[in-house]
Write a structure and sequence with these properties.
The protein has helices at 8-13, 59-71, 97-108, 118-122, 161-170, 178-187, 203-206, 209-212, 223-232; strands at 2-4, 28-34, 40-48, 53-57, 79-81, 87-93, 129-134, 137-144, 151-157, 239-246, 258-261, 264-275, 280-288, 297-300, 303-308. The protein has 313 residues and is α+β, with helices and mostly antiparallel strands. Helix 3 (97-108) crosses helix 5.
Length: 313
């Protein structure tokens, strides 16, 4: 989505959990949109472009969020546009991401048009953003660690997606499948909305509060619940997302598998994968708060599991 107008940041300040009003040109943040009961409607990244705010969130929730936000506009100077059909997004991650992206953007630029250098791209902090030209169309470069390693997401017009993908591949990028992307995400302990987080999740349960919630900003929807848990409940919630590590010979558990402590069901697996880095199955799952300490021994199916510190790797 794209938000324009002078009130775009102050408009979102009262809706989202992070300090959107504090953003300056070229910066961004990770945040969440909650119900009044503190449960998640969506998580998202917000990027201040200087003349607009680019909002990046899971595709299946875009329409609903766009409609909600549009309904809330009264006298504010803000316009909200759904870019789902008009744009495409590609991610490039890993130690050579900047060099490959530099080569691809230089090859796709018009004669005389500048392209970002690899050192410039590598120096961008997390959630930084910049706009360049890709032929006659704009391209947005977003600094990201969403894949579990540092890299970039590139937003381009839909009709230029294949061209950019071909240029990235020609510069040395390798397309990865779902299993590789899942392995990086789980190793990094990153929950994914509609997989590890749902509309029933409170951000504190998913462990995203350090990234998504500002404790110094003003009011936002759902703040009362968050503050009540943090201050009165000392941050204790009924369940928490934890990492689970298995023996190298154990089978990879399935999403939805029950987590047990003795004969007691204490949680559920949300994501699991065979970790290439750790050479063993690992998983993310919600566990009752009495069993979240690292080193706690649990059981999934017939396999022993140990609660691990996140990120795994």
């Amino acid at each position: 989505m794209l938000l324009t107008g002078a009130d775009r940041r102050t408009y979102l300040q009262g809706l989202l959990t992070n300090d959107v009003a504090a953003l300056s040109t070229g910066t961004g943040c990770y945040t969440a949109y909650l119900t009044a009961q503190g449960r998640m409607i969506a998580d998202m990244r917000i990027f201040e472009m200087g003349d607009s705010l680019l909002v990046d969130l899971v595709g299946e929730v875009v329409r609903g969020v766009c409609e909600r936000w549009t309904q809330f506009v009264f006298s504010e100077d803000v316009a909200i546009q759904d870019l789902s059909e008009a744009t495409a997004q590609l991610g490039i991650y890993g130690p050579r991401a900047a060099a490959v992206l530099e080569s691809a953007l230089a090859a796709g630029s018009l004669p005389g048009e500048p392209a970002p250098s690899a050192p410039l791209l590598d120096s961008m902090p997390l959630y930084a953003n910049s706009r360049w030209n890709f032929g006659a169309a704009p391209v947005f470069v977003l600094r990201s660690d969403d894949a579990g390693v540092m890299g970039f997401d590139i937003v381009v017009t839909s009709d230029r997606r294949k061209e950019l993908a071909d240029l990235l591949t020609g510069a040395g990028a390798v397309a990865v499948g779902d299993e590789a992307a899942l392995a990086c995400r789980v190793e990094a302990g990153r929950p994914l909305f509609h997989v590890d987080m749902t509309e029933e999740t409170i951000p504190l349960e998913a462990g995203i509060e350090d990234r998504a919630i500002s404790l110094t900003k003003g009011c936002y929807v759902g703040q009362e619940i968050i503050i009540r848990v943090l201050h009165r409940g000392q941050g204790r919630v009924a369940r928490r997302l934890v990492g689970l590590a298995f023996a190298p010979s154990a089978p990879v558990p399935a999403r939805g598998d029950k987590i047990r402590h003795g004969d007691r069901d204490v949680g559920t697996i949300t994501s699991a994968v065979q970790s290439p880095a750790l050479r063993r199955p690992i998983a993310l799952g919600y566990v009752h708060r009495d069993f979240v300490d690292p080193g706690t021994d649990l059981i999934v199916g017939e396999a022993a599991a140990t609660v691990s510190v996140l990120p795994f790797f």
